[in-house]
Amino acid sequence: MAEATGIQDLVDPGAIVLGLASADRDAAILELAGRLAAAGRVDDPAAVTTAALEREALGSTNIGLGVAIPHAKSAHVLQAAIAFGRRTDGVRWPGEAVADAGGDGADDEREVHSVDLVFLIASPEHASDDHLRMLAALARALMHDDFRAALRESRTPADVLALLSQRLQAGS
Amino acid sequence: MAVRRLVAITSCPTGIAHTYMAAEALAKAAADAGLVIKVETQGSIGAENQISPEEAAAADAVIISADTTVAEDRFAGKPIVHSGTGEAIRNAAGLIAQAIALADASAAAATPAPAAAGAAAAPASGTPTDGTDYVAQVAAAKAARKSGQQGPYRHLMSGVSFMIPFVVAGGILIALSFAFGIHAYEQQGTLAAALYQIGAQNAFALFVPILAGYIAFSIADRPGLAPGMIGGLLATQVGAGFLGGIIAGFVGGYAALWMVRNIHLPRSLQGLMPVLIVPLVTSLFVGLVMIYVVGEPVKAINTGLTDYLKGMSSGSAVVLGLIMGLMMAFDMGGPVNKAAYTFAVGLLASNVYTPMAAVMAAGMTPPLGLALATRLAPRKFTAEEKEAGETAWVLGLAFITEGAIPFAAADPLRVIPSIMTGSAITAALSMAFGIQLRAPHGGVFVLPIPNVINDPLLYALCIVIGTVVTALVVSVIKRPVVEEMPAPALAEPALS
């Protein structure tokens, strides 16, 4: 049963964008939502973007390691999905990172204002526990330097898919 | 010394991502520091990796990284480090160091001599770098400063936000009962009487206990609620008003917190602490404080001021107006306010009508002025206060001074002087113009009634002036609100 929910249930190769065109948050979210729409997982990318931006308004999802995880819960999400975008030159991500300026090093500046890895998490109104566990596993994996480094070094969407599959299946 | 054991809970509003990122970051940082940690995640899948009572009991310190409210009763007596999930994600090592510093401190407090040696040895043995200790000290100092600044204020705000619905519902129901005619509620069995009973005798009877109870709840969690609410009810009964309620909330809350932290009973009796010992002792304590320490002076203040006003009544009308105005706005329902109000009502029987007019006007301007201020200086009020501001218009017009209490309770040192200024000016003007009022309450509802007031237009002018003065003073001296966290409205689209 558990094997039935694989990473391919959540991630389409078409929704892995290794050269994001958009340099700012709103456009990047819309770009990724568009990919999810093309994959048939979302029926209204603009509505999903709006939902994600409403969530951003409550507190930025820039988690401060060069990673942002915008997420949208919306009736316009037909099937739970994750889209991944990478932009080596960075995507401007307004608002402070989640951490308050609690007081670590000065090199945080870049991280607060720009991210290079973006996971757009789209979830229907009622997601299954399996999908929630998968998202939790992704969230946990993102805390590990080697996982982020591997994402930054991946050359093809297939590499990313393999990486996600390996990391998200292994951890419970 | 044995390896430190930590337990942690992470939680975010909808529990999709941050809960787990924070958990992972804490687990990783603990592993890096060679510590044992168990992290319970309270996410949308429910609580996972739950901390058992035995594990809670064995822990040296607790880390709670949550953007939601997490029940802490199972950790009673343990040192607890609080943070949001964001800080855990970014600075898990700092939180761990802080928790260890607290664990060391509490161990040192429990057994002074050996632990001092242990603390000295700790940096060498337990932790990877010498720097960790310093980092922990800095973090602990920062946390102390932060909580020192915001603690009491946060407790006050928490109490106020629970109180507001009671003030709003009660105030509007009373105002509605006046709409049937200012004496309508005196007729038993009428709808007006029912409205008045719901609003004045019940909703308004609850709001000070609620204020006090939730101040105490914010301080001490569940053990604070009983002493807080009981103390708050006593505050109203001894006539100490909402200021007495604030005292009750803080006394009850800190008493409960102190007991939970410092009274350590033999294990066999520990089960009795939360259900019997803490509520009994703290309620008794706060109750005696309210009756003997707060209640007695309150009575003395009330009679003293009433006598003082009687002495004043032969002197300058304007000075009397100023003083009555200051008194009306000072504690809104407390002994000072009541002295002025009963003084004025008492004079109606002697056919002296000017103080009544002054007192009612002075009781209307605080809510009206604050309502206006929320419009003039919206940045200086929380979203909740702005909403309360809308109803404050209605309550002010109906001479329900309590409409100002949510604002005054949240920021007494700035709001009370402001409303006192406006009320004093209004009452002094009313006295100077010789305005006479023959009804003891009702606000604008009395104005259309023939012969109740001798000059309605001039009276309205006095109230408008006082309202504007109040609003301007409040707008100038209040500080802009810094919203600490995204408003508690957990908007539907929010995940994690």
Index terms:
heterodimer; A: 172 residues; alpha/beta; Mannitol-specific EII, Chain A; 6 helices; B: 496 residues; mainly alpha; Rossmann fold; 3 domains; 17 helices; elongated; disordered C terminus
Task: Describe the protein in words.
The complex is a heterodimer of chains A (172) and B (496). Chain A has six helices and five strands, in the order E-H-H-E-E-E-H-E-H-H-H. Chain A is of the alpha/beta class and 172 residues long. Chain A has a single domain, classed as Mannitol-specific EII, Chain A (3-Layer(aba) Sandwich), CATH 3.40.930. In chain A, strands 1, 2, 3, 4 and 5 form a five-stranded mixed beta sheet that branches. The longest helix of chain A is centred in the N-terminal third of the chain and has 14 residues, at 25-38. By secondary structure, chain B is mainly α. Chain B folds into three domains: 5-128, Rossmann fold; 150-294, no CATH class; 313-481, no CATH class. Chain B has 17 helices and five strands. Chain B has a five-stranded mixed beta sheet with strand order 3-2-1-4-5. Chain B is elongated and about 80 Å long. Residues 111-134, 140-149 and 483-496 of chain B have low confidence and may be disordered. Chain A binds chain B through residues 51-52, 54-55, 57-59, 61, 63-64, 69, 71-74, 97-100, 102-104, 121, 123, 127, 129, 132-133, 135-144, and chain B through 13-14, 16-21, 23-25, 28, 41, 43-45, 67, 84-87, 89-91, 94, 138-139, 142, 486, 491-496.
